[in-house]
């Protein structure tokens, strides 16, 4: 799963390399608007006649991409790093399938680490029931719940959570790297 996602990540990084150089910030409104200059992007790459890329750039998904990734100051991620710093590596890997596969596996590992920041928490395997276990009568009655003890546990948990730091990791906002100019491609 992660390797397929890594392949698509690489594809879109190659497809949209240099997109940041074609972003324009329009400040006539109270809220600044980010505009993508499609003609400049296609012209710099020499792809004005390319129907596929033109349709991709005119789609709603790309408009959402620009509005989400357009601001110059936001949280950076793996895609931003690929577009900004891995241009030469992706270009060099094109003629060498083993290097390309190695890079895809590295990206897949990074995607896995991003989604699973705590590697020590593993999935618990449930053991398969033993042969004939369904024939044994060992059903225990469900115990009565002690309402006072439940309230005590809830109060303890609330007290602990109010004093503890939030469990989510904070994403640090930074200036998004622009990457190399489009003319290099």
TrEMBL record:
This is MTMRD protein. It comes from the Eukaryota. Residues 1-76 form the UDENN domain. One of its GO terms (molecular function) is guanyl-nucleotide exchange factor activity. It comes from Rynchops niger (Black skimmer). GO terms for biological process: regulation of Rab protein signal transduction. InterPro entries: dDENN_dom, DENN_Domain_GEFs, Tripartite_DENN. SMART domains: dDENN. One of its GO terms (cellular component) is cytoplasmic vesicle.
């Amino acid at each position: 799963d992660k390797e397929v996602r890594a392949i698509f990540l690489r594809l879109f990084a190659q497809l949209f390399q240099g997109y940041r150089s074609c972003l324009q910030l329009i400040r006539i409104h109270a809220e600044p608007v980010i505009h993508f200059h499609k003609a400049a992007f296609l012209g710099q790459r020499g792809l004005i006649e390319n129907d596929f890329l033109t349709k991709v750039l005119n789609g709603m998904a790309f408009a959402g991409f620009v509005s989400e990734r357009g601001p110059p100051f936001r949280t950076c991620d793996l895609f931003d790093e690929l577009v900004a710093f891995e241009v030469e590596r992706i270009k060099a890997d094109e003629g060498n399938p083993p290097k390309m596969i190695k890079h895809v596996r590295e990206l897949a590992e990074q995607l896995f680490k991003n989604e699973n920041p705590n590697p020590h928490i593993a999935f618990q395997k449930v053991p398969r029931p033993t042969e004939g276990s369904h024939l044994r009568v060992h059903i225990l009655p469900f115990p009565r719940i002690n309402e006072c003890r439940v309230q005590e546990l809830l109060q303890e948990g609330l007290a602990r959570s109010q004093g503890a730091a939030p469990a989510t990791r904070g994403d640090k906002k930074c200036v998004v790297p622009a990457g190399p100019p489009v003319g290099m491609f």
